[in-house]
TrEMBL record:
Name the record gives this protein: Dynein regulatory complex protein 9
PROSITE patterns: IQ (PS50096)
Organism in which the protein naturally occurs: Manduca sexta
Subcellular location(s) of the protein: Cell projection; Cytoplasm, Cytoskeleton
Region described as Disordered: 327-346
Length: 346
C-alpha cells in the first residue's frame, strides 16, 4: 500500500486527534448517559468487580427480548456501542497515520463493516430458506400426524371391538359357570335331603341322648362348680377369721405390752415421787430448823445489842457526870489586854 507524505499524514492525524479529543470530552460531559448506562450494566459491572466467571464467547443476541425491541436500554446500548466503535475507528486510524502514514486501519474497518453487512444479508437469506424448509417440514409433520391419528383411531376402534367381544365372552362364561354351580348345588341338596329323610329316626334318637348326656354333664359340672365355690368361700372366710384372730391377738399383745410399759413407767414415777417427797420433807425440816436457829441467833444478837446499848449509855452518862475522857473540860488561856495607843500631834 502506498504511504502518504509525512505532512499529509500529520495533518490528517491532527484533525483526527482533535476529533477524538472532542468525542472524549463529549462522552465525559454527558453525565446523565453515563449514569443511565451504569445502572443498566450494574449486573455486569458487579460481576467484573467480584471476579465472577464470564463465558469466553458471548452472543450479541443474548439478553435481548425480541418482543420488546423498542426498549430504552437496547437503544442506549446501541448508542454506546456506536460511539465506542467510532472512537475505536478514529483512534486506530490516528495511530496508523501517526506510525505508518497510511489508511490501512480505516480500510480494514470499512471492509469489516462490509463483511458484517454481507454476513447479515447471507444470514437473512439463510433464515428465509430455513423458514421455507421449516414450513414444508411442519406441513409434512401435520400430514404425518393426521395419518397417525387416523391409524390410531382405526386401531382404537378394533381394540374396542375386541374388548367388547372379550367382555361378552367373559359374561357368557360366568353365566354358564353360575348355571353349572347352581345345578350341582341343587343336586347335592336333593341327595342330602333324601339321606336325611332316611336317617331322621336314628339321628333324632342319637341327638336326644346326646343332648341328655350333655345336659347331665352340664348339671354335674355346675353342681361341682357350686360346691367348689362354697368350699372356696368357706376357706376364704376361715382364712379371713384366722387372719383377724392373728391381728387381734397381735393387737392385744401390743396393747398389753404398752400397758406393761405404762405400768413400769408409773411405778418408776411413783418411786421417783416418793424419793422427791422424802427430799422435800428433809428440806422442810432443815428449813424449819434453820429458821429456828436463825430466830434464836437474831434474839441473841438483839439482846446483845440492847445490853451493849445500855452499857454504853451508862458509861457515857458516867463520863459526863464525872467529866472524864472526851467530856473533860479544857482550860482556856487568859489573853492580856492591849494598851491604848496615843494619838500623834499635828
Amino acid at each position: 500500500m502506498i504511504s502518504l507524505h509525512y505532512f499529509q499524514s500529520s495533518m490528517f492525524a491532527t484533525i483526527l486527534e482533535d476529533a477524538i479529543t472532542e468525542l472524549r470530552i463529549l462522552a465525559e460531559c454527558n453525565n446523565e448517559m453515563r449514569v443511565t448506562k451504569t445502572n443498566t450494566d450494574i449486573d455486569k459491572l458487579r460481576a467484573v468487580k467480584y471476579s465472577v466467571m464470564q463465558p469466553a464467547v458471548q452472543d450479541e443476541l443474548d439478553g435481548i427480548n425480541r418482543s420488546n425491541l423498542d426498549a430504552n436500554n437496547y437503544k442506549l446500548d446501541k448508542l454506546d456501542n456506536d460511539k465506542k466503535y467510532v472512537t475505536d475507528v478514529l483512534l486506530s486510524t490516528y495511530l496508523d497515520l501517526s506510525m505508518n502514514r497510511s489508511w490501512r486501519a480505516l480500510q480494514d474497518k470499512n471492509q469489516a463493516i462490509l463483511d458484517l453487512y454481507n454476513r447479515r444479508v447471507s444470514l437473512a437469506e439463510e433464515e428465509t430458506r430455513n423458514r421455507i424448509t421449516r414450513r414444508d417440514l411442519m406441513r409434512q409433520l401435520r400430514q404425518q400426524r393426521n395419518h397417525i391419528k387416523s391409524v390410531t383411531y382405526d386401531t382404537d376402534a378394533v381394540i374396542d371391538n375386541l374388548k367388547t367381544q372379550v367382555e361378552d365372552a367373559a359374561l357368557n362364561a360366568e353365566i354358564r359357570g353360575r348355571y353349572v354351580d347352581n345345578w350341582q348345588q341343587a343336586r347335592s341338596e336333593q341327595h342330602a335331603q333324601k339321606i336325611a329323610d332316611v336317617e331322621m329316626g336314628p339321628s333324632d334318637a342319637i341327638e336326644y341322648y346326646k343332648q341328655t348326656i350333655d345336659r347331665e354333664q352340664r348339671v354335674h359340672t355346675e353342681v361341682e362348680m357350686l360346691i367348689n365355690i362354697n368350699i372356696n368361700e368357706t376357706l376364704q372366710k376361715i382364712e379371713s377369721w384366722m387372719n383377724k384372730y392373728d391381728k387381734d391377738i397381735e393387737a392385744l399383745e401390743i396393747k398389753i405390752q404398752k400397758k406393761k410399759h405404762e405400768h413400769e413407767k408409773m411405778e418408776e414415777r411413783r418411786h421417783e415421787l416418793e424419793k422427791r417427797l422424802q427430799r422435800h420433807d428433809e428440806l422442810i425440816k432443815n428449813w424449819v430448823n434453820f429458821k429456828d436457829e436463825r430466830e434464836k441467833a437474831r434474839l441473841y444478837l438483839e439482846n446483845m445489842h440492847k445490853s451493849a446499848a445500855i452499857v454504853q449509855a451508862w458509861w457515857r452518862g458516867l463520863l459526863v457526870r464525872y467529866e472524864l475522857g472526851p467530856y473533860k473540860p479544857t482550860k482556856q488561856p487568859v489573853k492580856p489586854e492591849k494598851p491604848e495607843k496615843k494619838g500623834k500631834k499635828k
